[in-house]
Automatic annotation (TrEMBL):
Species: Psychromonas arctica
Name of the protein in question: Acetyl-coenzyme A synthetase
Catalytic reaction(s) noted: acetate + ATP + CoA = acetyl-CoA + AMP + diphosphate
EC number: 6.2.1.1
Job of this protein: Catalyzes the conversion of acetate into acetyl-CoA (AcCoA), an essential intermediate at the junction of anabolic and catabolic pathways. AcsA undergoes a two-step reaction. In the first half reaction, AcsA combines acetate with ATP to form acetyl-adenylate (AcAMP) intermediate. In the second half reaction, it can then transfer the acetyl group from AcAMP to the sulfhydryl group of CoA, forming the product AcCoA.
Primary gene name: acs
HAMAP family linked: Ac_CoA_synth
Residues the record lists as N6-acetyllysine modifications: K609
GO molecular function (one): acetate-CoA ligase activity
The protein's enzyme class: ligase
Magnesium in keyword set: yes
Length: 649
C-alpha cells in the first residue's frame, strides 16, 4: 500500500461539483463545532409533517447509551421518497429495472411508484398490519422489493429484509427474533440464469418452531414457477393489491419511531437485529447520497447491491429516492451472461453514477478486457466502492478500464450499524489515494485508539472508533439494548467501537485495514466465525470446529475451517463435500467454507480456550510467526497442523 500515488481533483471537477475542498473543510469544521446548528439546518433536506425543535440528544456513557436525533419531529419516509417529487417529477423514472436476462427491463415513474406503493400499503392495512408491526421481506431484486419497503414505511410498519441467498433456518431465526407478522416473498428469484426457490424456502422456514407469529405470506408471481400454496395463509400479490384505492394517507411517524431492522453478523452468537429509526436515518442517507455521489439532476444512478444488505437500503432505495433520483435495480450478476454485462448495462441505461463492490471488480478484472468489450462507458461520471478494503490493483483497474481514467472513485467506508457512509472522498473536494477511504463525512468524528482505549495522535495505526453520534447511527439491537451496549460501547468507554482497524497517514487520510474481531468479510458479506462454527458442529459427525479467514484473490477473504471429527469417524472426499453442503444448507451459499482442514486436535490453552491467533497463522502459511506457544495445553498439535496445512496447499 503506498500513500504516494495521488489523484488530485481536477479544476473542472471542482468547478462542476457540489462541494470544493474549501467548502468541505469549512463545513466539516462547523459540523463538529456545533452539531446542533449544523444538523438543525441539514435536517431540512427532508419534508417534515411536524418540524423538530430538538436536534441532537445522545450519550455514549457506560450503562446509559442513548441516541436520539430530531426527537420531537414527525415525518413519513414514503412521502419524502415519493409524494414530494410528484409535482415536479411525476413522469421522471424513479425505478429503472434491468432483469437477469438482458432482454428484460422496466421503467417505473414517480407517479406509478406512488400508485403501486399506496395500493400495496392499503393491502397491508386490510390484512391488519399496523404501525409498529414487523414485516419480513424475502424478495428478489425486482421493483416489488422497493414497493414493499416503501409501503411499510407509508403505514409505519417496520421491515426486516432477509437476503434472498439465506437458508430457511436463517429466515426462521430472523422471523422469530423480530416476531414478524407477515412475510412478503416471490415464487422464485432469478440470478445468473438460475432460479432461486424463494417461496419454497419460506415454506420450509415456517415449519420451524416459533414461527407461528406469521399470519400471512404475500407472494409476488415473478417467474411463474410452481409453488406450494397454503389456503388462508398464502395470498397472491396481485389479488390483494389490484382493487385497492390508489391513495393511502401516510402515517405521521415520530423521528425516533423504528423504520427497519436488519440482521448482521457479529463476532459471537446469533445475528444481531440492528435497529434504525425514521428521521435521523433518512436525513443521513439523503445527505450522504447527495454529496458522496455529487448527485445532480439528470443523473442515472446504479448501485449493484442487493436490497437484503444495508447498501441496498440506504443507497439503492432510500438515499436516491429521497433526492428524487433515478435508481437502477438489477436482478442479475455483473458477469452474466458475459463478463461485459456490467459495462453493457452502463451503456444501455446511460448510467452516470456507479456504486459496486471490490469483489465484483476483482472478478471482472480477472477477465481482462472481456469485461469492457464492445462498450464505451462514456456516460459514467463517478464510481463508488463499498464493502471491504479495495486493493490498489483493483482500484487502478476500475479507474482505468471501467471509468476510462475520467471518473473519481469514492471508496466509502461504513457498516450496517452506521446507517450511511462515514469515511469517504467527496468527488469535487478530495484528492484520491488508491486504497484509502480518505476523510470523514460531515459530523463524523473518527479516532484511533490503542488496546487500552487511549486516543492516538498523528500518523499511526489503531482501533477505529467514533467519538460522537451522527444522525444515521443505529439506536439499539432489536429487543436487546444490553447486547447493544456490550457489543459497541464496552470495549472502549464513551466511544462507538467499529470492530475495524485503521491507519491514518500524514495527510489525515484513513486506510481501513479490516476487522480486528472474529468477523469475516467474504465477497463484501459479513460472516461471524461463531455462526459458521455452530453450523459445522451441528453436523452429526463433527466434534469441534474453528473458523478463520484467509486471503482470497476474488472474495477478499475465504473461509478456512478446522474440523475435528467424532472419534470413530473418518475423513473422506465424500464427507468433505457433504460438510461444505451442510453449512450451505444451514446458513446460505455465502457461508460455504473454501477449505476444510481435518484436524485431530486444536491448539488450546490449559483452560480450554481455542487459540485462534495460532490457527490464523497456520492457515495463512505464516507458521514461522506463531509467537509464544508455551501456554498451550499440548504444544505438539501445532506441528501436526502445520504439516497438514502444507499438504492442503
Ligand atoms: C464492514 C461492514 C457498508 C455496507 C457494506 C458492508 C467493511 C465496508 C469498506 C471500505 C474497507 C470496508 C468493514 C466494515 N467495509 N466498507 N470502503 N473499506 N472496509 O456492511 O456488512 O455491515 O460490513 O465492512 O470491515 O466494518 P457490513
Amino acid at each position: 500500500m503506498s500513500g504516494n500515488n495521488i489523484y488530485p481533483v481536477s479544476p473542472e471537477l471542482a468547478a462542476n461539483s457540489l462541494l470544493t475542498n474549501d467548502q468541505y473543510l469549512s463545513e466539516y469544521k462547523a459540523s463538529i463545532e456545533d452539531p446542533e446548528a449544523f444538523w438543525g439546518e441539514k435536517g431540512k433536506i427532508l419534508d417534515w409533517i411536524k418540524p423538530y425543535t430538538k436536534v441532537k440528544n445522545s450519550s455514549y456513557a457506560p450503562g446509559n447509551v442513548n441516541i436520539k436525533w430530531f426527537e420531537d419531529g414527525e415525518l413519513n419516509v414514503s412521502v419524502n421518497c415519493i409524494d414530494r417529487h410528484l409535482a415536479s417529477k411525476g413522469d421522471q423514472v424513479a425505478l429503472l429495472w434491468e432483469g437477469d436476462s438482458p432482454d428484460q427491463d422496466a421503467k417505473i415513474t414517480y407517479q406509478e411508484l406512488y400508485t403501486q406503493v399506496c395500493q400495496f400499503a392499503n393491502a397491508l392495512k386490510e390484512l391488519g398490519i399496523k404501525k409498529g408491526d414487523v414485516v419480513c421481506l424475502y424478495m428478489p431484486m425486482t421493483p416489488e422489493a422497493a414497493v414493499a419497503m416503501l409501503a411499510c414505511t407509508r403505514i409505519g410498519a417496520v421491515h426486516s429484509i432477509v437476503f434472498g441467498g439465506f437458508s430457511p433456518d436463517a429466515i426462521a431465526g430472523r422471523i422469530i427474533d423480530s416476531s414478524s407478522k407477515l412475510v412478503i416473498t416471490a415464487d422464485e428469484g432469478r440470478r445468473g440464469g438460475r432460479t432461486v426457490p424463494l417461496k419454497a424456502n419460506v415454506d420450509e422456514a415456517l415449519t420451524r418452531d416459533g414461527t407461528d407469529c406469521v399470519e400471512h405470506v404475500i407472494v409476488f408471481k415473478n417467474t411463474g414457477g410452481d409453488v406450494n400454496w397454503i389456503e388462508g395463509r398464502d395470498l397472491d400479490w396481485t389479488a390483494v393489491t389490484q382493487s385497492q384505492p390508489t391513495d393511502c394517507e401516510p402515517e405521521a411517524m415520530n423521528a425516533e419511531d423504528p423504520l427497519f431492522i436488519l440482521y448482521t453478523s457479529g463476532s459471537t452468537g446469533t445475528p444481531k437485529g440492528v435497529l434504525h429509526t425514521t428521521g435521523g436515518y433518512l436525513v443521513y442517507a439523503a445527505m450522504t447520497f447527495k454529496y458522496v455521489f455529487d448527485y445532480q439532476e439528470g443523473d442515472i444512478y446504479w448501485c449493484t447491491a442487493d436490497v437484503g444488505w444495508i447498501t441496498g437500503h440506504s443507497y439503492l432505495v432510500y438515499g436516491p429516492l429521497a433526492n428524487g433520483a433515478t435508481t437502477l435495480l438489477f436482478e442479475g450478476v455483473p458477469n452474466y451472461p458475459t463478463p461485459a454485462r456490467m459495462s453493457e448495462v452502463v451503456d444501455k441505461h446511460q448510467v452516470t453514477l456507479l456504486y459496486t463492490a471490490p469483489t465484483a471488480i476483482r472478478a471482472l478484472m480477472a477477465k481482462g478486457d472481456e469485461a469492457i468489450q464492445g462498450t464505451s462507458r462514456k456516460s459514467l461520471r463517478i464510481l463508488g466502492s463499498v464493502g471491504e478494503p479495495i486493493n490498489p490493483e483493483a482500484w487502478q483497474w476500475y479507474y482505468d478500464k471501467i471509468g476510462n481514467k475520467q471518473c473519481p472513485i469514492v471508496d466509502t467506508w461504513w457498516q450496517t450499524e452506521t446507517g450511511g457512509i462515514l469515511i469517504t472522498p467527496l468527488p469535487g473536494a478530495t484528492d484520491l489515494k488508491p486504497g484509502s477511504a480518505t476523510r470523514p463525512f460531515f459530523g463524523v468524528q473518527p479516532a484511533l485508539v490503542d488496546n487500552e482505549g487511549v486516543i492516538l495522535e498523528g500518523a499511526i495505526e489503531g482501533n477505529l472508533v467514533m467519538l460522537d453520534s451522527w444522525p444515521g447511527q443505529m439506536r439499539t439491537l432489536y429487543g436487546n439494548h444490553d447486547r447493544f451496549e456490550q457489543t459497541y460501547f464496552s470495549t472502549f468507554q464513551n466511544m462507538y467501537f467499529t470492530g475495524d482497524g485503521a491507519r491514518r497517514d500524514e495527510d489525515g487520510y484513513y486506510w481501513i485495514t479490516g476487522r480486528v474481531d472474529d468477523v469475516l468479510n467474504v465477497s463484501g458479506h459479513r460472516m461471524g466465525t461463531a455462526e459458521i462454527e455452530s453450523a459445522l458442529v451441528s453436523h452429526p459427525k463433527i466434534a469441534e470446529a474453528a473458523v478463520v479467514g484467509v486471503p482470497h484473490a476474488i472474495k477478499g477473504q475465504g473461509i478456512y475451517a478446522y474440523v475435528t471429527l467424532n472419534s470413530g469417524e473418518y475423513s473422506s472426499p465424500e464427507l468433505y463435500a457433504e460438510v461444505k453442503q451442510w453449512v450451505r444448507k444451514e446458513i446460505g451459499a455465502i457461508a460455504t467454507p473454501d477449505i476444510l482442514h481435518w484436524a485431530e486436535g486444536l491448539p488450546k490453552t490449559r483452560s480450554g480456550k481455542i487459540m485462534r491467533r495460532i490457527l490464523r497463522k497456520i492457515a495463512t502459511g505464516e507458521s514461522d510467526q506463531l509467537g509464544d506457544t508455551s501456554t498451550l495445553a499440548d504444544p505438539s498439535v501445532v506441528d501436526k497442523l502445520i504439516k497438514e496445512n502444507q499438504e492442503i496447499n
